[in-house]
Write a structure and sequence with these properties.
The chain is of the alpha/beta class and 520 residues long. It contains 17 helices and 20 strands. The strands form five sheets. The chain has a seven-stranded mixed beta sheet with strand order 8-7-16-17-18-15-19.
């Protein structure tokens, strides 16, 4: 049965690009609208004075998600991306002067940890076994389909199975990532390293559900990768694939609103910023799901009110990013580095509960010249420094706050990471603040990672990819299921496309069945 639904996609971030490629590969007519002049969303690039920076995500994990997207079109990922494996995966710097590398091999890492802190090696192995179980449960019930809550995860119609109860109990519902980590690894430095997997989703480990411990196994199982050309190469590859499949890309085109039918129960098209109305059979929003309901749907419609009543969604954290072009690289850095805070509990309390920047923050430092020297002039470095901050509050004025906070960051790097002469090495500098992120990417209150994963019972759930309120409306991106981070955002795009495609096939069967019966 031939399918040719007309689909409009709002937003050309990684989720929107993934949706476009999958839908086009399955035979749908796809038009993608992007307000910015570039495609790729936060996976943008900054080039200046011989330095090249990835402006947004810099860590690529779970490449099997990308492979699955390209396989939809019978393409090999390796024909579009050159991926470099990174091992050790991270280098950790601590306040006490110690340094710890995260190795991909579990046994090797266990041996390193045993020397670093007696007993930590065996605890780490136990934690990874728990993490593997959480990953397996996520694969069975959570990933690769539209999920907005517990009822979407478990289909009781197929009958109760004892293994289901075992999985539910294993998830440690009501417990946090932080408490689960410390149950296995009491050493505070090792625990801080393992806590940081939840920073992929911009949330506090002591408020996030234990099932998110599965992120550790996802990374361990498939590794950390660097695409040659930077993570910007990922959207470039998707755009190339989409163009080959006939996707109509329209960058520089903003969307004013989503059009609905007279009953306000079905999405039927879009209206651009210029007032042009375009009819579609279905619409996928890669824009922030909360802002989609607030700004792209008529606030008088029932879907908006139902969304607002369903759950109060909290933005994830924001951040300050420094882009520093150095004339001399730091040889003691790896590609990925974490310079940890002295007191993680105080840090997370400040960011996630008080809503104020931490006085002593953890700094993520990316030094990509380790893997690709061409990112900087010979011998130099394009240093990317990210510090998580609260999402925007009404009293935050980052034009005033930034200079002092920049100095806090540089002082932290000097004290804990041996970068005391950093200022003298800087030849180019740029930045993003939470206000810049809010304005540039149109995300909720400057939140880098969409919606927070807070709540020890239901924190992992985001708005479903298939709208429960409007037929023909679907969601992709970091504020939709399964959440933020490059692989999850790409997966959200696949799920949105698959849900739309399934619904189209069901609708076509209903239309054709009466005709088939008449001719029989």
């Amino acid at each position: 049965m031939a399918l040719s639904s007309r689909v409009g996609i709002i937003g050309g971030g990684l989720g929107g690009l993934a949706t476009a490629c999958v839908l086009a590969a399955r035979g749908h007519q796809v038009t993608l609208f992007e307000k910015s002049a570039w495609l790729g969303g936060k996976a943008a690039i900054l080039e200046e004075s011989g330095y090249r920076f990835d402006m947004g995500p810099t860590i690529l994990t779970i490449p099997s998600v990308l492979r699955r997207i390209f396989a939809e079109a019978n393409r090999e990922l390796t024909d579009y991306l050159d991926l470099i494996s990174l091992d050790p995966q991270w280098r950790c710097f601590y306040e006490d002067g110690s340094v710890l590398d995260l190795h991909a091999n579990i046994e090797k890492m266990g041996g390193v940890l045993e020397q670093y802190s007696p007993g930590a090696g065996e605890g780490y192995r136990h934690f990874l076994r728990f993490s593997q179980r959480m990953h397996a449960i996520s694969d069975r019930f959570f990933f690769w389909r539209s999920v907005g809550g517990m009822k979407d995860m478990i289909d009781l119609k197929v009958g109760f199975k004892p293994s289901l109860l075992s999985d539910v109990l294993a998830m440690r519902m009501g417990h946090s990532v932080a408490s689960t980590v410390r149950k296995h690894v009491p050493d505070p430095r090792v625990a801080q390293m393992l806590d940081h997997f939840t920073q992929y989703v911009g949330s506090s480990p002591d408020q996030s559900p234990a099932v998110l411990c599965g992120i550790a196994h996802m990374q361990t199982a498939e590794g950390i990768w660097y695409p040659r050309g930077g993570t910007r190469a990922v959207p470039n590859a998707l755009v190339k694939l989409g163009a080959e499949l006939g996707v109509d890309f329209r960058p520089g085109t903003g969307i004013r609103r989503i059009l609905t039918d007279d009953s306000q129960r079905s999405a039927r098209g879009i209206e651009t910023d210029t007032g042009q109305r375009i009819a579609f059979d279905a619409v996928v929003s890669n824009a922030d799901s909360v802002r989609t309901h607030r700004e792209l749907l008529d606030p008088a419609t029932k879907p908006v009110h139902r969304f607002n009543r369903r759950r109060r969604y909290e933005p994830a954290c924001s951040g300050v990013v420094l882009y520093l072009g150095l004339d001399r690289a730091y040889e003691h850095l790896l590609h990925h580095n974490f310079v940890f805070s002295r007191d993680p509990e105080a840090e997370f309390e400040s960011i996630y509960r008080k809503g104020e920047p931490a006085d002593d923050p953890t700094c993520y430092v990316c030094a990509p010249a380790r893997s690709e020297p061409a990112v900087a002039p010979a011998g130099g470095e394009s240093l990317y420094v990210l510090v998580h901050t609260p999402y925007l509050r009404p009293h935050h004025d980052w034009s005033r706050m930034f200079p002092a906070y920049r100095q806090i960051i540089l002082n932290k790097l000097a004290k804990c990471a041996g970068m005391d002469d950093l200022e003298s090495r800087i030849r180019f500098e740029s930045r993003l603040t939470p206000q810049d992120i809010h304005d540039r990417y149109l995300v909720l209150n400057g939140a880098i990672y969409g919606l927070a994963s807070h709540g020890k019972w239901l924190g992992a759930f985001k708005p479903a990819n298939r709208s429960p309120d409007l037929t023909g409306l679907y969601f992709a991106g970091g504020s939709a299921h399964p959440g933020p981070g490059m692989p999850m955002v790409l997966m959200s795009g696949w799920i949105a496309a698959d849900s739309l495609d399934q619904d189209s096939r069901t609708r076509m069967k209903k239309i054709t069945r009466p005709a088939e019966m008449a001719t029989s």
